[in-house]
Design goal:
Strand content: under 5%
Distance between the termini: 9 Å
Mean pLDDT: 79
Shape: globular
Largest sheet: none
Radius of gyration: 26 Å
Helix content: over 70%
Length: about 475
């Protein structure tokens, strides 16, 4: 076991690279959604289902992780997931039909959901008794944010400017009142000369339309580039798996039969089970709402800036860069901050900041510069919430694959309903419905955490004892997986 610290460091580095790949994948759909409308001959209303299909896949990936993670070789599972994620991202970009695009995005979600769920448990259990467990997990999420911040710069060269809602196939001419060509057959111009000029204008418009469509088609190569980066990000896990050649399936340690049967009454066992379910349900709902306040801006900030504020693609990309930049900065600051602040304190601070950020957007119609302040506050405000909440939960119960799955599946369900709900209202009613939904979700998020905090304060000892006894076998499996070969 002398090499255990070295192996632990190597596995943590592999996890860092893998989460960097997740970060690069995060902004690609949101940034390219307007371009993919033209490529797939669709609209925002229909393409909103891409976020839903991705979240359905994310949910399935989290559930699969909860079932098999504690019983299989971790490095093999990460390797397989990264290869699936990379290949399906590439396939998504080159789909020619909306149905194929939705299916491929759902498979991307399966891989990402598995990696995200497994990564939380993998990191916490590698460093479970280490005094730097908190900053190490915060660093995992900081690397995700750093990659998500760099991602728009990688994607931006593949996105052309779109100056109108329907730039393709629009062959109507924009003529001023003083134009001789548009003013009719006068001053020596006969009708045939006007027709000739009109035909020439039509040819020019068609050429420009074809040229623009070719430029829009470059968005496909953003998916190719991100897919290749993602594949490379898993290289350390590939090496770890083939170097150690551990068995894919782990053999469970023999169960220790209790010679002293429990004297608990049936009613007491039912009460304990109910309390456990209530605790898990509140964690589920917390992450459900968390993805509302994080996932909706990631999905729709670009479309909101282009379609509601009428800003350019360039400026919409900068908004996302600011958002992801502050997200990254917050997670980097969260590394040393987690050494001096309790996880629950960090969560409370972040919830307040995100609520302020989204309520400011209510004034964006009158003051469009508010979008920059909102991007700064929301990006920073939600930066360390995910990791801080995972760390807070790990203080209460052992963070096994199943517990991590509850958190991530809750987030996945939020990813299914949030973007879909906004997508249906975005064009049918108004893009401002994105803001209204974010405001309501942020207030519900604060209320739910307050309830969860009071519940844990009263039941912490009970939860810790019961989860520890129920997860004994899974902890043994983790020990088998992490031992030095």
């Amino acid at each position: 076991m002398e090499n255990m610290p070295r192996n632990r460091n190597l596995k943590t580095t592999a996890l860092y690279f893998t989460f960097a790949g997740l970060g690069f994948c995060a902004p690609v759909l949101g940034l390219s959604i307007v371009h993919m409308e033209y490529i797939l001959n669709s609209n925002t209303h229909i393409l909103a289902f891409a976020f839903t299909s991705h979240s359905i896949g994310y949910t399935i990936g989290g559930i699969i992780c909860g079932i098999i993670y504690d019983h299989a070789n971790k490095e093999f599972l990460f390797s397989l997931s990264v290869m699936t994620e990379a290949s399906m991202i590439i396939v998504s970009g080159f789909c020619g039909h909306i149905v194929a695009f939705l299916v491929s995005m759902s498979l991307v979600g399966v891989a990402m959901g598995f990696i995200d769920t497994a990564g939380q448990s993998y990191c916490v259990n590698l460093w479970v008794n280490h005094r730097f467990k908190e900053p190490i997990l915060q660093a995992v999420h900081a690397i995700w944010s750093l990659a998500a911040t760099i991602g728009p710069f990688v994607i931006r060269p593949f996105l052309v400017e779109l100056h109108s809602k329907n730039p393709i196939g629009n062959t109507s001419s924009n003529c001023s009142g003083s134009s001789d060509i548009c003013s009719g057959p006068e001053d020596g111009y006969n009708s045939s000369s006007v027709t000739d000029v009109t035909d020439l204008s039509s040819i020019v418009d068609k050429f420009q339309s074809t040229e623009l469509m070719a430029g829009i088609d470059l968005a496909r190569y953003a998916y190719l580039t991100i897919g290749l980066i993602t594949f490379i990000s898993g290289i350390l896990f590939y090496i770890l798996y083939f170097y150690y050649c551990n068995p894919v399936l782990l053999i469970a340690a023999p169960k220790e039969h209790n010679k002293h049967p429990s004297m608990k009454t049936k009613s007491k066992r039912q009460r304990e089970r109910l309390l456990l379910l209530v605790f898990l349900f509140m964690l589920f709902m917390f992450y459900y709402l968390y993805i509302y306040i994080e996932g909706i801006p990631i999905a729709y900030f670009t479309a909101f800036v282009i379609k509601y504020l009428n800003w350019s693609v360039h400026h919409s990309t900068l908004v996302m860069v600011v958002f992801y930049g502050m997200h990254c900065l917050g997670r980097i600051i969260g590394i040393p901050l987690s050494m001096v602040l309790r996880p629950r304190t960090m969560v409370i601070m972040n919830l307040v900041l995100t609520s302020i950020a989204y309520f400011l957007l209510l004034f964006v119609h009158a003051f469009d510069w508010v979008i920059w302040i909102s991007a700064v506050l929301s990006g920073y405000g939600m930066s360390s919430t995910f990791a801080a909440m995972v760390l807070w939960v790990s203080e209460i119960v052992p963070l096994t694959g199943r517990v991590a799955a509850v958190l991530l599946v809750g987030g996945s369900f939020g990813g299914m309903t949030g973007p879909l709900l906004v997508g249906q209202l975005f064009e049918a009613v108004s893009p401002m419905w994105m803001v209204y939904i974010l405001c309501v979700a942020s207030m519900l998020h604060i209320a739910l955490f307050a309830i969860l905090f009071i519940f844990v304060g009263k039941q912490k000892k009970f939860l810790s004892e019961n989860f520890s006894s129920k997860q004994h076998e899974e902890i043994n499996l983790n020990d088998i997986s992490n031992q030095d070969i």
